[in-house]
Amino acid sequence: MSSHGDPIPMTARQGGPLRGEALVPGDKSISHRALILGAMAVGETKISGLLEGQDVLDTGRAMEAFGAEVVNHGGGNWSVHGVGVGGFGEPDQVIDCGNSGTGVRLIMGAAATTDIAVTYTGDASLNSRPMGRVTDPLALFGTRAVGRAGGRLPMTLLGAKEPTPVRYVVPVPSAQVKSAVLLAGLNAPGETVVIEQEATRDHTERMLAGFGAEVSVEDTDEGRVITLKGQPELRPQTIAVPRDPSSAAFPVCAALLVEGSDVLVPNIGLNPTRAGLFYTLQEMGADLTFENMREEGGEPVADLRARYSPAMKGINVPPERAASMIDEYPVLSVVAAFAEGQTVMTGVNELRVKESDRIDAMAQGLRAAGVEVDEGEDWWTVTGRGFGQVAGGITAESRLDHRIAMSFLILGLASNAPVSVDDGGPIATSFPIFEDLMADLGAQIERTAR
Ligand SMILES: O=C(O)C1=C[C@@H](OP(=O)(O)O)[C@@H](O)[C@H](O)C1
Ligand SMILES: C=C(OP(=O)(O)O)C(=O)O
């Protein structure tokens, strides 16, 4: 994958307005889940609009290593011939999940309750991220894990021989942890119960129900209680993946910041557990509208229209909204740099354990670009300089983190001097068409000579 290869330095600079339609690729979270549940069903699942980013391709290869047949029919159409719950075979090679936390954590869960030994690894970013948050609950099923110090990859998981169902209160707001436990629960007899205190993205619950599992969700004083009946036969599905709101965030924020812009981003998944950024931008005064609201495949979708919005103001982003926009804080911090007044972001410790420490990565680059940023362990603030007042003129480190690379390039489209990133390679993990899509809108982003 490109983030393993030579760095791809890139530079963004001011140009004319951004205009047109931005057809962003399929949702990354839903794409991973479609491949994994397809591999756990009996028969052929058909997927259209699959994200063909490296993270998802790595998950597809992993499903093949477990014995599923994964076929690319072209044009975003894929099929997965599954081996059934409990049908995973032992891979004869290490499972390399590249840069993807979602990939490795969900796959660990899916394989944890089958009696096979699996070794996982990833790139330097993934191998520095904590896996104990997943292997701790998987141990309750009877799975054993041996990895590097601090629960880091590479790591081998010995699947439970006789899995027992689990009741688990998720200690951090993480859809990856919740999903790993639910996927492990699929091959445990009886009921697995997962309780989350803060609602996180619910694609796993929705898709499990779609594949015919018995799954119920109840809001109680203890939190959101998800109950799954183990050992179902999953029925293959036809899945149309909606476009990714987390990718849409980049052309949307660019349009808000670049003078004269008017961009339509059609058919975006607006699941409420994902849409927090768009409500935050509206509260800041963005000219952002949801057109043609509708339901598709059980998920709310709309066309987003974003226009240049030079009167945005900083706000306090409520901590209870964090999970619904967790991947969007880096690009929000860029918008906040142009707004008037301070933007306060609290309840965001999780940002420190993503592909990079995202608070530190954005704070360092924004400060170098002339923006005041203050931070604590689980909060940060950006003091907006106003439109036309952000200096830029930096080269930011992307730290093997696609969202950091794209966020700094968006900064460069509106700052006074160009902004470069040392490596745009990681962008291909989630948004492989980013450069072409932005160029079609009129953005001045180019690869720079090293
Ligand atoms: O479940 C998922 O698909 C994801 C969950 C989130 O991670 P956490 O579970 O670590 O919050 C998010 O950051 C990631 O991009 C995708
Ligand atoms: C955090 C992210 O992904 P993952 O955890 O799957 O690596 C992301 O895409 O922003």
From TrEMBL:
<feature type="binding site">
    <location>
        <position position="358"/>
    </location>
    <ligand>
        <name>phosphoenolpyruvate</name>
    </ligand>
</feature>
<feature type="binding site">
    <location>
        <position position="129"/>
    </location>
    <ligand>
        <name>phosphoenolpyruvate</name>
    </ligand>
</feature>
<keyword id="KW-0963">Cytoplasm</keyword>
<comment type="similarity">
    <text>Belongs to the EPSP synthase family.</text>
</comment>
<comment type="function">
    <text>Catalyzes the transfer of the enolpyruvyl moiety of phosphoenolpyruvate (PEP) to the 5-hydroxyl of shikimate-3-phosphate (S3P) to produce enolpyruvyl shikimate-3-phosphate and inorganic phosphate.</text>
</comment>
<dbReference type="Pfam" id="PF00275">
    <property type="entry name" value="EPSP_synthase"/>
</dbReference>
<dbReference type="InterPro" id="IPR036968">
    <property type="entry name" value="Enolpyruvate_Tfrase_sf"/>
</dbReference>
<dbReference type="GO" id="GO:0008652">
    <property type="term" value="P:amino acid biosynthetic process"/>
</dbReference>
<keyword id="KW-0028">Amino-acid biosynthesis</keyword>
<dbReference type="GO" id="GO:0009073">
    <property type="term" value="P:aromatic amino acid family biosynthetic process"/>
</dbReference>
<feature type="binding site">
    <location>
        <position position="28"/>
    </location>
    <ligand>
        <name>3-phosphoshikimate</name>
    </ligand>
</feature>
<feature type="domain" description="Enolpyruvate transferase">
    <location>
        <begin position="14"/>
        <end position="436"/>
    </location>
</feature>
<feature type="binding site">
    <location>
        <position position="403"/>
    </location>
    <ligand>
        <name>phosphoenolpyruvate</name>
    </ligand>
</feature>
<feature type="active site" description="Proton acceptor">
    <location>
        <position position="327"/>
    </location>
</feature>
<feature type="binding site">
    <location>
        <position position="174"/>
    </location>
    <ligand>
        <name>3-phosphoshikimate</name>
    </ligand>
</feature>
<keyword id="KW-0808">Transferase</keyword>
<feature type="binding site">
    <location>
        <position position="327"/>
    </location>
    <ligand>
        <name>3-phosphoshikimate</name>
    </ligand>
</feature>
<comment type="pathway">
    <text>Metabolic intermediate biosynthesis; chorismate biosynthesis; chorismate from D-erythrose 4-phosphate and phosphoenolpyruvate: step 6/7.</text>
</comment>
<comment type="subunit">
    <text>Monomer.</text>
</comment>
<feature type="binding site">
    <location>
        <position position="101"/>
    </location>
    <ligand>
        <name>phosphoenolpyruvate</name>
    </ligand>
</feature>
<feature type="binding site">
    <location>
        <position position="354"/>
    </location>
    <ligand>
        <name>3-phosphoshikimate</name>
    </ligand>
</feature>
<keyword id="KW-0057">Aromatic amino acid biosynthesis</keyword>
<feature type="binding site">
    <location>
        <position position="29"/>
    </location>
    <ligand>
        <name>3-phosphoshikimate</name>
    </ligand>
</feature>
<feature type="region of interest" description="Disordered">
    <location>
        <begin position="1"/>
        <end position="24"/>
    </location>
</feature>
<dbReference type="InterPro" id="IPR023193">
    <property type="entry name" value="EPSP_synthase_CS"/>
</dbReference>
<feature type="binding site">
    <location>
        <position position="33"/>
    </location>
    <ligand>
        <name>3-phosphoshikimate</name>
    </ligand>
</feature>
<dbReference type="InterPro" id="IPR013792">
    <property type="entry name" value="RNA3'P_cycl/enolpyr_Trfase_a/b"/>
</dbReference>
<feature type="binding site">
    <location>
        <position position="176"/>
    </location>
    <ligand>
        <name>phosphoenolpyruvate</name>
    </ligand>
</feature>
<dbReference type="InterPro" id="IPR006264">
    <property type="entry name" value="EPSP_synthase"/>
</dbReference>
<dbReference type="GO" id="GO:0003866">
    <property type="term" value="F:3-phosphoshikimate 1-carboxyvinyltransferase activity"/>
</dbReference>
<dbReference type="InterPro" id="IPR001986">
    <property type="entry name" value="Enolpyruvate_Tfrase_dom"/>
</dbReference>
<protein>
    <recommendedName>
        <fullName>3-phosphoshikimate 1-carboxyvinyltransferase</fullName>
        <ecNumber>2.5.1.19</ecNumber>
    </recommendedName>
</protein>
<dbReference type="GO" id="GO:0005737">
    <property type="term" value="C:cytoplasm"/>
</dbReference>
<feature type="binding site">
    <location>
        <position position="176"/>
    </location>
    <ligand>
        <name>3-phosphoshikimate</name>
    </ligand>
</feature>
<feature type="binding site">
    <location>
        <position position="28"/>
    </location>
    <ligand>
        <name>phosphoenolpyruvate</name>
    </ligand>
</feature>
<dbReference type="GO" id="GO:0009423">
    <property type="term" value="P:chorismate biosynthetic process"/>
</dbReference>
